[in-house]
Design a protein that fits this description.
The structure holds three protein chains of three kinds. By secondary structure, chain A is mostly helical. Chain A is built from 19 helices and two strands. In chain A, helix 4 runs antiparallel to helix 5 and helix 13 runs antiparallel to helix 18. The longest helix of chain A has 33 residues. Chain A is globular, with a radius of gyration of 21 Å. Chain B has one domain: Orthogonal Bundle (Helix Hairpins), CATH 1.10.287. Chain B is elongated, with a radius of gyration of 21 Å. Chain C is mainly α. In chain C, 78% of the residues lie in helices and 2% in strands. Classes of the chains: A mainly alpha, B mainly alpha, C mainly alpha. Chains A and C meet through helix 5 and helix 6 of A and helix 17, helix 18 and helix 20 of C.
Chain lengths: 487, 122, 495
């Protein structure tokens, strides 16, 4: 199966979205769901091809004289592609309930930008070289910018400015020169197992600088101090925060880092040159600092945003440790965290739609009014923390195991400390919802169910169940990850 | 010393050129600026003509004389073109000055600048 | 017939110009200009094809063979510039009809189109000729008509802008004339091929050096290289916007072509960049240009002036590419000449559409324009991204090659500064887009509601240019190949 097909459904659905417009909402959203299912099928086709060992690649388009745009599938990309396309369908179902329940404006523009962003995510997932990855990366930035400024008010525009400023600024200021540096030094931008930089004649110090340029240039991965865009982007409607800022955008960031470490540097080159030595503390600092900041946030979406920043740096840490086990754990964590975090965001949106509450301090007792939502929130939280029986425990285990290979226990202790912090900032929310008395209720009165629209509930149920299923059946995923060629 | 005097023609070129340039920079009156520009251009014509002059040479006419000495005709031809260009430049410039005077009421650079500065952007 | 195409390239607009004067009718003089411009465009495409297929074309004007006669000399480099100039002229002329009808009184239209044709003729002449003095003549033809075109602007400041351009431009042209004079004195020829051959052996190297300095200064003034750009911002701001679109796409580009021709073909790379100060002068000026002018552009409230300063900055990129004096650097510079020509022309055309409907282009009061003029805004956004250098636009192709070229030479700082100024471009373009698309209007007057798109005759040419630039952004190797061929021609010297 040609990976170019993955670009077709999200792009082909745009005319339909525009054609149906606001007036025929059901048809508009129906067409998106069909496109999403088709995309999922295509990704599944690629998955079977890759599992069967059939090479999956597209033709080339010469963008520059020596470098061209090309797509091809390798296990890491298949994982990401499957993940994004599956969650696109789920998120569309969810946003049908959310956007209508919340009476958002400009819904057509919203869905169009969403579809473009998803096409670009597919491009990033199956990028065959750095140039393609960069192009997709920038298209994602630009197409999600209108989603952040969606509301159009002063606050949204300010947030949009921060969003575009940091993401574009770092990508042009750091990522682009890093790519051109690779092009000049190695003469190729292709992703090759084992990397292309081993014999490129770059010294140890320069290698560290190059890695840093990539790490800070990919601000979508949310490493401090370039993390500010993510909390700022939370002004966007919740489905955007859920899919784009828990899955598509941020995961493109960490996915790019993983891919660059594996296929451009090569994990051996990273360990041999010690390029990552002074970057590991930065990632570790981000893990801890973001957890602590999350602790102080009362706004639920802001807390989740900082939690995301912290979790992303787990993956960065895993990438920088550059052992087979840790990078595998990183890839797995992309999936596990995505399901956990999207569940949490869906719940946050559901609370907003049903009860119009966004502050954690006002969520006392809402568990009795929204038991399903808060139950799902609990599962999602456990998965983020990394406790069985949820998928998050597998990836955390792998990353922790990988970090022990590095010979020190510093990074393991960072992970464990952060797990404690996760418990401290996530678990009180469902506990508060279920155990504390509801201030809006008179004594003796029983709470009535006030759940979000059914579309929202279905989506929440699906992702929460997936968290558990991923714990029970991680096999297909781990087999796929096992196919990654490291050298 | 003899070289200095011998090359007197080039000295004239330099003096004319600098005088023209000075007028263009130092005078605020637009017409005077154009006078300076014309002077500047004229000095270049003079430079070309001087270059082409051969000692004792006359007009280049085809004769059956091996020792016939004549000046290089090409720069003369070039300068004919350049003179036309110079005249056209002056004409356009003067026409512009007329229009400027009509719409601003002055042709003094400093006054124009202060009028312009007072006008709003866009 | 096809042998005469080099002459026809110039003759068609040159003959059409007086016909325009005789027609006097606004509509028919436009038709005349349109026909001439389209013919010139077709001819230039055929010439480019011939050059790419069969190599250099030499044409002896009037049958007088070089070096005594004037020779037209076409290689990959100037064939590409010919296509750029005549193509942009044809596209912008379609657009100009409505735009000019609104801003220039009807009784002057025929003069406007006459001046336009003369300007096209002059620009094409500069590019096509292989004779140094001929360059000067065509330069003055194009400049004089350009002064006239600029003075057609509605604002009375167009007159002073035009006058100041005239004074500076004439000085620049005079410098070129002096330079050519000294070259002739030192070598006794005006033919560029001959010059290139004779300069190294000339007895009076001092005269050659003087000629070199005067030519450099003159051309730098004409191409508005920082800090000799003073004439440009006002001229671009107050000229009729169709003229600005045309000039921004072609005029400075042609001067840059002259720069290339003299530095690389006539004097040779080793002379220009090896033994002389050009390395120390040109590169710093170019770099300071693109950094400072991008910075200045951020603070402009008039959209046209912002784009004008950005033009000076872009000229800086191009000259920076040239002054690397390597195959890849030259390729980057040349490709940016073409790419920026398209991008800036389409940006100014979009601005013209806004001007046509809204009546002003004061950036802070363009709020919510997206609702009223969606097509114009989309075109502006796409071209604006090209200016920033977002991937899949032409700007990315040229910036990538430029940075790669400077890294190849080991000049890290240049690469960093190019990126810095790209970041500034994000700020100044982003600011406009943000206001256009995302800011809700403060007052909801009758004019701010409902759609009022510019007329189709303006939108279609705008989208043609945007489409072409998108095509070359995605298929960048097409332009890069021509530019690379041109660069190797230039470095290899004239044959």
């Amino acid at each position: 199966m040609n990976p170019l097909w993955t670009l077709v459904p999200p792009l082909a659905v745009i005319p339909f979205i525009l054609f149906f417009g606001e007036k025929r909402k059901n048809l508009r959203e129906g067409s998106i769901i069909i496109a999403g299912l088709v995309l999922l099928l295509i990704n599944n086709g690629i998955y079977t091809d890759v599992m069967a060992g059939i090479p999956v690649e597209s033709g080339e388009l010469a963008l520059l004289a020596d470098f061209s745009l090309k797509l091809s599938a390798e296990p890491m990309g298949v994982v990401f592609g499957l993940l994004a396309s599956f969650l696109w369908v789920v998120t569309t179902v969810y946003s049908i309930g959310y956007m209508r329940g919340h009476h958002e404006i400009n819904q057509t523009r919203f869905y169009v930008c969403f579809a473009i962003a998803l096409a670009a995510v597919m491009g990033a997932a199956y990028a065959d070289n750095l140039l393609t990855l960069f192009v997709a990366y920038e298209v994602i930035t630009i197409s999600t910018y209108p989603l952040v400024t969606h509301a159009g008010g002063d606050g949204a525009r300010k947030a949009g400015r921060i969003y575009l400023g940091i993401l574009m600024g770092t990508s042009i200021g750091f990522l682009l020169p890093a790519i051109i540096w690779v092009a000049a030094a190695a003469g190729t931008l292709d992703f090759v197992p084992g990397g292309v930089l081993a014999d490129a004649g770059i010294g140890k110090g320069a290698m560290a600088v190059l890695l840093a340029l990539f790490l800070f240039g990919i601000a979508k991965a949310g490493i401090m101090p370039f993390h500010r865009w993510l909390p700022a982007a939370m002004v966007a409607p919740t489905p955007v925060s859920a899919l784009l800022h828990a899955v598509a955008v941020v995961k493109t960031g960490v996915f790019s880092v993983l891919k660059i470490v594996t296929y451009t540097f090569g994990i051996d080159t990273v360990t041999v040159t010690g390029a990552a030595h002074w970057l590991l503390p930065v990632a570790a600092f981000t893990v801890l600092a973001a957890s602590i900041v999350a602790f102080t946030k009362d706004n639920l979406k802001a807390r989740l945003a900082y939690s995301t920043i912290s979790q992303l740096s787990y993956i960065l840490l895993a990438a920088l440790l550059a052992t087979v086990m840790s990078v595998s754990g990183g890839v797995l964590h992309i999936v596990m965290h995505a399901f956990g975090k999207i569940t949490l965001f869906f719940c946050a949106g559901a609370i907003m739609v049903a009860l119009h509450k966004s502050e954690i301090s006002k969520m006392n007792g809402i568990g009795r009014r929204m038991p399903l939502t808060m139950g799902a929130f609990f599962i999602g939280a456990i998965s983020i923390i990394g406790l069985p029986p949820t998928g998050g425990s597998w990836s955390k285990l792998l990353i922790a195991g990988g970090s022990l290979d590095s010979g020190t226990i510093i990074w393991v202790s960072v992970l464990m400390l952060s797990t404690l912090l996760n418990i401290a900032y996530l678990l009180p929310i469902p506990l508060r919802a279920f155990l504390r008395p509801d201030p809006d209720l008179q004594p003796g009165e029983t709470a009535t169910w006030q759940e979000a629209p059914y579309a929202c509930l279905w989506a929440i149920a699906l992702t929460a169940t997936s968290c558990v299923l991923l714990f029970l059946y991680p096999r297909p995923l781990t087999e796929l990850i096992g196919l990654i060629q490291w050298r | 010393m003899s070289q200095l005097i011998g090359l007197y023609s080039y000295w004239i070129v330099i003096v004319l050129m600098m005088a023209g340039l000075y007028i263009m920079i130092a005078r605020y009156n637009l017409v005077k600026k154009i006078i300076g520009l014309s002077l500047f251009q004229t000095s270049i014509f003079y430079l070309y003509i001087t270059m082409s002059k051969v000692d004792g040479g006359t007009a280049p006419i085809l004769v059956d004389d091996a020792d016939y000495v004549y000046s290089n005709p090409l720069p003369h031809v070039l300068i004919l073109t350049a003179i036309v260009v110079g005249v056209a430049t002056s004409a356009v410039a003067l026409a512009l000055i007329v229009r400027i005077y009509e719409s601003f009421g002055t042709i003094e650079e400093d006054e124009l600048k202060s009028i312009e500065a007072a006008e709003p952007d866009a | 017939m096809i042998d005469q195409f080099p002459a026809l390239q110039i003759m068609v607009p040159l003959v059409a110009a007086p016909i325009c004067v005789m027609i006097r009718n606004p509509r028919w003089s436009w038709v005349c200009a349109m026909v001439a411009s389209t013919l010139a465009f077709l001819i230039s495409i055929i010439l480019l094809q011939q050059v790419m297929a069969n190599g250099v074309i030499r044409y002896a004007v009037g049958g007088w063979a070089a070096p005594s006669g004037i020779e037209y000399y076409i290689d990959a480099m100037n064939a590409a510039v010919l296509v750029l100039v005549s193509g942009i002229s044809a596209v912008v002329l379609v657009y100009a009809y409505r735009s000019v009808a609104k801003s220039v009184p009807a009784e002057k239209h025929y003069l406007f189109y006459t001046a336009w044709l003369m300007c096209v003729c002059g620009l094409l002449g500069i590019v096509i000729t292989g004779d140094a003095f001929n360059v000067f003549v065509f330069l003055e033809i194009s400049s004089l008509s350009m002064y006239t075109l600029i003075s057609f602007g509605q604002d009375r400041r167009a007159l002073t802008a035009s006058f100041r351009y005239l004074v500076l431009g004439s000085v620049g042209a005079s410098f070129i004339l002096i330079g050519i004079g000294f070259l002739y004195a030192a070598t006794g020829t005006l033919n560029m091929t001959d010059l290139a051959a004779r300069i190294p052996d000339s007895e009076s190297q001092r005269a050659v050096l003087v000629a070199f300095s005067f030519l450099t200064m003159g051309v730098l003034i004409k191409s508005a290289v920082f800090p000799l750009h003073a004439w440009l911002p006002n001229a671009y701001t107050f000229a009729p916007v169709a003229v600005t679109a045309f000039l921004a796409g072609t005029a400075t580009k042609v001067s840059l072509y002259v720069l290339l021709r003299f530095f690389f073909s006539v004097f040779g790379k080793d002379y220009s960049f090896g033994q002389h100060l050009l390395n120390g002068v040109l590169l710093p000026a170019a770099v300071a240009g693109f950094v400072l002018m991008s910075l200045v552009a951020i603070f402009q409230n008039d959209l046209r002036r912002m784009l004008a300063y950005s033009s000076v900055a872009q000229v800086g990129y191009i000259v920076a590419g040239f002054s690397l004096a390597t195959q890849s650097g030259l390729t980057a510079g040349i490709v940016h000449v073409v790419n920026h020509g398209m991008v800036k022309a389409s940006l100014f055309m979009a601005v013209g559409c806004i001007l046509y409907r809204v009546g002003h282009v004061h950036t802070p009061s363009l709020d919510n324009l997206m609702k009223r003029m969606p097509f114009t805004c989309v075109a502006f956004i796409i071209s604006g991204m090209g200016l920033i250098g977002v991937p899949l636009t032409v700007g990315f192709v040229s910036k990538f090659t430029l940075i790669e070229a400077s890294l190849e030479k080991g000049w890290w700082a240049i690469a960093a500064l190019v990126l810095l100024s790209s970041l500034m471009a994000i700020v100044y373009v982003g600011r406009v887009i943000e206001i256009m698309v995302f800011r809700r209007s403060r007052e909801t007057g009758p004019e701010s509601s409902g759609m009022c798109e510019a007329p189709l005759s303006m939108l279609v040419p705008l989208y043609v240019l945007v489409g072409v630039s998108l095509y070359f952004g995605i298929n960048g190797s097409a332009t890069l190949e021509v530019a690379g061929r041109a660069a190797s021609f230039l470095l290899g010297g004239l044959q």
